[in-house]
Specification:
Layout: E1 34-40, E2 43-49, E3 54-61, H1 86-90, E4 96-98, E5 101-103, E6 126-129, H2 137-146, E7 171-176, E8 179-188, H3 196-200, E9 217-219, H4 221-226, E10 238-244
Parallel strand pairs: 3-9, 6-8
Antiparallel strand pairs: 1-2, 3-10, 4-5, 6-9, 7-8, 7-10
């Protein structure tokens, strides 16, 4: 499969992604060598080395159960692009219910940054990136060319499988405020859904998204607390991030409950 790359600003035609907007922690372990593929001119451009760092990226906060725009097709975090029953799969609102609304809450190291009013069934250290490899037609068509691990044994037979994601549950390392934390991908966004140049490129490209202060990812309340964000639900915190393989994720609160579920 060698599709031609189209504009990253092309409108998404199957908008099921759930969001369009936007203490001591372990030191980062070294990444492993990989072959990084980036879509350019209809062919894969490879460069050896670690998964590249993406620096000074605006990160907003989202949470399971949030409804930020009930009129939008993807304005609810009760589902994600990879899980149509995310609220149930996770175990309920990842925060507190106030006046019938699921709201976020501060997270602290004393509780491993876990929610205080519910017991999650999946990892509370989750995030999204603007590449939907399942429901966005361009993302699905190009995933075999742009996702660095697509041809590894665990994934290569799934490239053409319309019921499987190569992104869900993958680990990401994040740095902010002299802290390093880890999270798993559970959704796609914000604002863009096949921004391969930013997500997989090795030139520290800026996100194509221009909404919500140009955010390049959403992070969960657990990651918000772990990384020491200054805002509970704002648009001004920034992170550095890179993909990381499971074997290179150190012990930490993010390992207390690892999500392994597939697409639902």
């Amino acid at each position: 499969m060698s599709p031609t790359c189209r504009s990253a600003t092309e409108q998404r035609t199957a908008p099921r992604s759930a969001r369009e907007r936007h203490g001591p922690v372990a030191a980062g372990a070294a990444g492993v060598l990989v072959v990084l593929a980036a879509c350019a001119g209809g062919s894969a451009v490879t460069s050896p080395g670690r998964y590249p760092w993406h620096t000074d990226i605006v990160a907003t906060t989202f949470w399971v159960g949030e409804v930020f725009d009930p009129s939008a097709a993807d304005g609810s975090q009760e589902f994600s692009t990879y899980d149509s029953t995310w609220l149930t799969s996770y175990g309920g609102c990842d925060g507190r219910i106030r006046a019938g609304t699921c709201e976020t809450e501060p997270r602290t190291e004393a509780d491993d940054f876990f929610p205080t009013a519910m017991t999650p069934l999946e990892n509370p250290f989750y995030l999204d990136l603007p590449f939907d490899d399942l429901n966005d037609p361009e993302g699905f068509a190009t995933r075999g060319d742009v996702i660095p691990w697509a041809h590894e044994p665990a994934y290569r037979d799934l490239i053409d499988d319309e019921s499987a994601s190569l992104m869900k549950n993958r680990w990401v390392r994040l740095r902010a405020n002299d802290r390093t934390c880890y999270g798993q991908i559970q959704d796609a966004g914000p604002g863009q859904y096949h921004d391969a140049a930013y997500v997989f490129g090795d030139d520290d490209r800026r996100p194509a998204n221009r909404r919500f202060n140009g955010a390049g990812m959403d992070v969960s309340p657990a990651l918000n607390g772990c990384l020491g964000f200054t805002e509970l639900n704002g648009e001004n915190d920034r992170v550095d991030w890179q993909f990381v393989d499971d074997a290179d994720v150190p012990d930490g609160p993010w390992r207390r409950l690892v999500t392994t579920s597939g697409v639902q």
